[in-house]
Amino acid sequence: MGSSRRVSAGHGIFPVTLDKGVLYDDNMSSYTISYKSNNNVVYSCKYHAVWCPKYRRGVLVHGVDARLKDIIQSVCTESRAELLKLEVMPEHVHLLVEVDPQYGKCPTKSFLV
Question: Following DSSP, what letter does each residue of 54-98 receive, concatenated?
Answer without folding.
Answer: GGG---S-TTHHHHHHHHHHHHHHHTT-EEEEEEE-SS-EEEEEE
